[in-house]
Amino acid sequence: MTRPVVIACAMTEEAQPFLEALEPDASVEVPVLPDGFRGPADFRGGILQGHPVVIATTGIGMTNAALAATVVATQLRPRAVIFAGTTGGLGANVHLGDVVVSEYALYHDADATAFGYAPGQIPQMPEKYPADPWLRATASGALRAKGLAFHTGTISASNSFVDGAQVEPVRARFRDVLAVDMETAAGAQVCWSFSIPWVSLRAISDLCDPNAGEVFDQSAPSAAATSFAAVESLLGSPPRRLHP
């Protein structure tokens, strides 16, 4: 079996640009879900930028992301997982439409500090989950060459959409976090557990302010398109680890 690159998006709207560009190829295997499976996960295989890829639409939230990531990790043994789509901008210098290239992922709602763990750290797990250094560096070079605005840094996740009512405590406690979403850290933890290289290339769709929900609705399609362009640029870079 040819090991694919998995591109994971939470929502259909985020996955749509990838599905429209995907060249059908029946030789690219996708996970087989058991009868009675009730999760929202959907998997489509094909060719993108010359690479065998599987587009995983995971559903929203950390459990859905972890479930889909575990399915692809155990059934496909992917060469890499790329988390794509939209993200809320938390850093002071990020703007709508900017791409955030992950350096680390953490959970901003995890708090076991009473037992000596760092803020954002799940007990008995790493403080942060590192993105693959080569994927991160190659993505940054590809985005720079394409002229896309991007930032490299820490991203975080929780099961809450961060808006103006929640943002200040998160920003105060995690000053190095550039962007927040509801899936990446959970998927990154699964990738770490299975030693699968990963990176996140999400685009800013809102700024976690009181108008975040309204702005997200307006900006999500263009942010999804920018994330697609970022991933396409990475896949078009020198192959190295992206080859079987």
Detailed description of the structure:
The protein has a single domain, classed as Rossmann fold. It is of the alpha/beta class and 244 residues long. The model has no long low-confidence stretch (mean pLDDT 95). The chain has a 5-stranded mixed beta barrel, surrounded by 4 helices.
List keywords for this structure.
Rossmann fold, 6 helices, 5-stranded mixed beta barrel, alpha/beta, 244 residues, globular, 10 strands
Describe the secondary structure blueprint for this structure.
Blueprint lengths: L4 E5 L2 H10 L1 E2 L17 E7 L2 E7 L4 H15 L3 E10 L9 E9 L21 E2 L2 H14 L3 E8 L9 H7 L3 E5 L2 H10 L4 E9 L5 H24 L9
Parallel strand pairs: 1-4, 1-5, 5-10, 6-8, 8-9
Antiparallel strand pairs: 2-3, 3-4, 5-9, 6-7, 6-10
Helix pairs in contact: 1-6, 2-5, 3-6
Short description, anyone?
With 244 residues, this protein is an alpha/beta fold.
Q: State mean pLDDT (0 to 100 scale).
A: 95
Under the CATH scheme, which architecture would be assigned? 3-Layer(aba) Sandwich
CATH topology: Rossmann fold
- Under CATH at level 1, the class stands as Alpha Beta
Tally of separate helices: 6
Q: CATH-wise, what's the superfamily? A: Nucleoside phosphorylase domain
Order of helices and strands: EHEEEHEEEHEHEHEH
Overall number of strands:
10
